[in-house]
Amino acid sequence: MAGSKVLCVAEKPAIAKAVAQHLSGGRMRTLHVNGNRYVKNYVFDFNFGGTWGDCSVTMTSVMGHLTSVEFQREYMGWTSCPPAQLFEAPIHVYVDKERAAIAENILTQARNCNALFIWTDCDREGEHIGTEVRDKARESNQRIIVKRAMFNNTERAHILNAARSLGDLDERQANAVAARIELDLRIGAAFTRLLTLQLQPLHDSLQNHTISYGSCQFPTLGFVVDRYLRVKRFKSEKFWGIKVMHARDNMKVNFLWSRVHLFDRAAVIMMLERCLMAKKAKVTKVNQKPTSKWRPLPLTTVDLQMMGTRYLHMDSSAVMKTAEALYTKGFISYPRTETDQFDKGIDLKKLIEKQLEDQSWGEYARGLLDGNFKTPRAGRHNDRAHPPIHPVCWVSPSALSANEKKVYEFVVRRFLACCSDDAKGQSTEVEIQYGDEMFRARGLIVLERNYLDVYVYDKWESTQQLPNYRVGEQFEPTEANIFDGKTTPPNYLTEPELIGLMDANGIGTDATMAEHIEKIKMRSYIGVHSRGGGRNAVKELIPSRLGIALILGYDDVFAGLADKPSLSKPFLRKEMELEMRDVCAGTRMRQHVVQQNLDMYRELFIHTQRRMNMLKSAFRRYIVEEENV
Amino acid sequence: MANLKDQIATELLRTKSLPVSQPWLDNFLSSSSTAQRNTPLPALTRTALFRILTSDFRESLASRNATILPVDIADPNVQERRLPGCIPVQVLDIEDIGTSAWSQIEAIERVERGETVRGREIVRTVNIGGDEDQGGATGSGNRATAACTNAGMDADANESGGPHRLVLQDAKGTRVMGIEMKKITGFAIGRLSIGAKLLLRDSTVARGMVLLTPENVTLLGGKIEAMDQAWKTGRKERLLEKINGTGGGT
Hints:
The complex is a heterodimer of chains A (about 625) and B (about 250).
Chain A: E1 4-10, H1 13-24, E2 29-32, E3 40-47, E4 54-61, E5 68-71, E6 91-94, H2 100-111, E7 115-119, H3 124-140, E8 145-148, H4 156-163, H5 171-199, H6 217-233, E9 238-248, E10 251-257, H7 265-278, E11 281-293, H8 301-311, H9 316-328, H10 348-353, H11 362-372, H12 402-418, E12 423-434, E13 437-448, E14 474-475, E15 479-486, H13 495-504, H14 513-522, E16 526-531, E17 538-543, H15 545-557, H16 571-585, H17 590-610, H18 612-624
Parallel strand pairs in A: 1-4, 1-7, 7-8
Antiparallel strand pairs in A: 2-3, 3-4, 5-6, 9-10, 9-15, 10-13, 11-12, 11-14, 12-13, 16-17
Helix pairs in contact in A: 2-3, 3-5, 5-16, 5-17, 6-14, 8-9, 8-13, 9-12, 15-18
Chain B: H1 2-16, H2 22-31, H3 34-37, H4 41-53, H5 57-60, E1 81-96, H6 101-112, H7 141-153, E2 164-169, E3 175-180, E4 197-206, E5 209-212, E6 217-221, H8 225-245
Parallel strand pairs in B: 3-5
Antiparallel strand pairs in B: 1-2, 1-4, 2-3, 4-5, 4-6
Helix pairs in contact in B: 1-4, 6-7, 6-8
């Protein structure tokens, strides 16, 4: 096949450029694409090896999805049909106006090529985009051969290697995405039209406000509202406890009660009295043992988002956008991954070596290479597509924007921490029996900080040292008193917590969580408020009246129905997400999954229609009358 | 006939330390059918025991002085006293004093909404703020995290953690508070029914509270159905009253 003409298509212009530069070694021509300012065609020669040999290559890109799915024209108007019809109304795949030039470019280029190599990102969406590109190319060239490049960062050697070991598109993953797109369109449109048409007229503030429904949006909002209500409805209670202090060797040792505290004052007073009656306390246990604080696991997307929102003062969608920019520029590996274990084949030391020149952590990296290196812990997840997020090469901070600097630094520090030893310490625990009650004192000495030196986000510090106690020894405590306190309400939900909840309950994929949160902010279902000030400010998510009315209204709609969980709860979406995995694994058919989900949601839709008055009354209560929750 | 009655009474006193009341036993025997009266003694005794455990002790037990509580038992001025021998009592109330009433209410509401148990599905809560303890917890941090736990972050465990405070009643109707000083198997809300029967053996009473430990409590089991039902129905209401009554307030 020597002398073949090959068309390569990446998911984004920046990837196309990076890949083209590596393959061409810089010797390439850049051609303008009519009608699009971002997409370029790069023309060069490259030897793909094997049967392909020397080829003349045109490398181009799309910009995300090439096609959209929509209802046919007669169903497009909001009042064109009863919303329930959208569950079966015909839909069609089309290229929208903004992408027409990109599609045209692929059509033209494919006509003269023997082969099409897909360079979209290696994940579910990327697989689907790959099939969109293939279908478009086949419109002009039915016999074109289609292959797929497997890669997860844009480092040169990795890209060259990917170019010489091409595989095939994974039809199943593409099918799962197609199924999700159809379900989201039908379910989303049907419910959104129903809710908007019925609820908008209830109050002036809702004029021109789309009241959207999405099967991820609602459970996400549900988590926020749920916590808000817990805070609002919280009732504080008093509790009492016993504290014991013993002065020895000029140290005041505070012993904590094994019962922590109780909600019955009389009982606590009685217990204290029995301690005092016993006069002496007896040491029942002295435990001195080495202890360690474990180095973190290799970085996944969910972890990046949680840690990012917690330590970098950025919201999750900003963290993801920044990480993607860093990936596109070739500084870090693909930021969408569930894998928290490094493959044995990856040369970690080589990656550490690249960080040597850094001003802040270069010296630490040197230490790792000089003998402190430890093989990273392996987590339990592996998506078989991407390694954990790690730095691919070193970049000077001056070349990065403020946000990029923060995210890049976090990725590097996390990676170096993974390759370090655990922090080591010595813990001492003394347990005493005083009357019928047990008390404990604990001490910790940090002996070796190890990974903590580079991973500045973790804290582990020595506490007060404990004097010597012997098992069996008896002493009279210096003080024994009652203390009291009050229970405090939980805090409002923060973004890292929300991501944790979504992850634990199967809402969205690691790649889409940030988008769902962004969506409910955009719809004014929730707002972000700051608690505290300065660097320690915590951003809290507070639902709006609209958000509260929707969730509480929906809970009423589904109240008392066995086996019909409210749409504000994560159960249904979680099932759908699991079914998508089945489609990817090839154990279930796309059409079957779509049909079954449509049937189920249609039933819920009919039910919502029937009990619409409950939603309306929730809206009247919380929005019109501004009732408190 | 009289012989049979005595035999059952003796047997129950010997094996279970239960002094059955004569009228109750008469009634039990006369209400059982002839066929039952022909059943062997051990079987008949078992039936009697089962009935006693589901009965009200005030009706089914004789109130002899040695097997009832002193009338002034709840006197908080008495620092400590012993109750020698074996005293049968029934449970009138059980409360978890290790957990705030509010987090218990939240747990009840989760069950009402069908969230805790829906097949395999559970809304999972995550605790991000809390440091995972890897064997090196700091002493001072302990109380703070414990306080936050009591705000109800993870009151998800199916069984109440205790310690529990019980209201106990003897055959004569005298009531006394009992505090679970050490974990007793079977003492948990939902597991220990109202009307369940216990034996107190050589117990200690301090400031009017019986100290309950595995060594001096024998759990006989049983329940009084009507009381148990009423207790369950009213539990959330009582917890709410408790909060509002003690004047916590946010």
